[in-house]
Structure formats: C-alpha cells, structure tokens
Amino acid sequence: MTLSQPEDDSPSWIRVNILVAMWQKNSSIQYDEGSTRLCRGVQAVLQTQLDRHFVFGLLLKQCGLRVFYGNRSGLLATDSWIDVRTQHVKFIQVVLAISSLPPRHLGWDQNMKLYLNPHPGVREFRYTTDPNVQLKDYGPNPSDAQWAIFVPDRYTSIMGKWYLTIRLITTFESEATEVGPITMG
C-alpha cells in the first residue's frame, strides 16, 4: 500500500498498522526509553486515527521481543520477553500472527468510514484501510475529516443507520508528544 506523504515530509501517523521500536542493547535504560517511546507512539496513533480502538506495538532489543497492546485507557505489555535466540519459533509466530490480522483485529472500527467528496454531488464512503484512501482525503488536518458512523439498532448489530458527522467537537491532540525513532509498519 502506498500513501502520499505530506508536503513537509513529516511522518504521518494516519496509516500506521503496528508500532515497532528497536534497540541494540539489552540495558534496562534502553528498555525504559523504548517503552516510553512506544507508549508515546501509541498515543500519537490513537490521537490521529479517530477510527482506531487499539494498536499493537513490538519492542525489540538485541535478543528479545515484548508485545504491547495500547488503547485510550492504557497500555499492556507481555510480562516476559520472548528470547529470539531460544524461542525463535514463538517469535516467528507472533510476527506472522500480527502481520496476517484483518483490520478489525488490528483495532480499526468497522462502524466508521471516511467521507470522501471526490466531485460535487458525489458521496463516497471508505474504510481508512482502503488502499485507495490518500492523505489528502482527510483534509488539511485529520481532525477536519468527516465520518460516516454506523449505529446498530437495539435488536441486532447488522441492522441500523449510518450517520454523517459535521465536525469534530473535541480532540485529544492538546497533549504535545514528541516521538522518537519508531518504525511505522
């Protein structure tokens, strides 16, 4: 999937699937720093991707892997490291499992679609994971985007109505976060 970059070449958190932080050494200082940066990356993803419930993160050090799960209420991590030297099968299983998950299992809300207005009078709605969605479709700022939100009726999750948002009332972007070297996957 390709996505056009913003004109200023700054990184975009719009289409991040999972976060990966990598460190060369096994020191506890680097672990703490990596965990902090991963946590800030999770915050940045959730602030930017309004249709995202949660995000996975991987923290890799010289010989270990730890899996993180973050949502708007907090961050969880596996209680032990996967040693990539002795538990290489488990390491490969984790990477393959995460890489093969569908969008809803990676945290995207399937009850929200981005409203696109390609031509006057034409309404188009797409999931943000659609490869045809471009950065420009969000408008000047992701918080300016309009959304179609599905609200199921009280008897079934299949039947219901779609509603179109007009504008975002509030945003969590007021918290300034500086995120260091994290690979967007």
Explain the overall architecture.
The structure is a single chain. By secondary structure, the protein is an alpha+beta fold. The chain has 2 domains: 18-107 and 174-184, no CATH class; 112-164, no CATH class. It contains 2 helices and 10 strands; from the N terminus they run βαββββαβββββ. It has helices at 28-48, 88-99, and strands spanning 18-22, 54-61, 64-71, 74-77, 82-83, 112-116, 124-126, 147-152, 160-164, 183-184. Strands 1, 2, 3, 4, 5 and 10 form a 6-stranded mixed beta sheet that branches. A 4-stranded antiparallel beta sheet has the order 7-6-8-9, with no helix packed on it. The N and C termini lie close together (11 Å). Residues 5-113 form the Fungal-type protein kinase domain. InterPro entries: Pkinase_fungal. This is Fungal-type protein kinase domain-containing protein.
Topology:
Blueprint: E1 18-22, H1 28-48, E2 54-61, E3 64-71, E4 74-77, E5 82-83, H2 88-99, E6 112-116, E7 124-126, E8 147-152, E9 160-164, E10 183-184
Organism: Antrodiella citrinella
Pfam families: Pkinase_fungal (PF17667)
Protein name: Fungal-type protein kinase domain-containing protein
Summarize the entry for a quick read.
The chain is α+β, with helices and mostly antiparallel strands.
- The helix-strand sequence is EHEEEEHEEEEE
Task: Provide the residue-averaged pLDDT.
Answer: 82
Number of helices: 2
Tell me the major beta sheet.
6 strands, mixed
How many structural domains can be distinguished in the coordinates?
2
Contiguous runs where pLDDT drops below 50 for at least 5 residues: 1-10, 173-185
Distance between the termini: 11 Å
Task: Output the radius of gyration.
Answer: 18 Å
How much helix is in the residues?
10-25%
Please give the number of β-strands.
10
| Shape, per Cα inertia axes | elongated
- Going by helix content, strand content and strand pairing, the class is alpha+beta
Determine the strand fraction and express it as a percent band. 25-35%
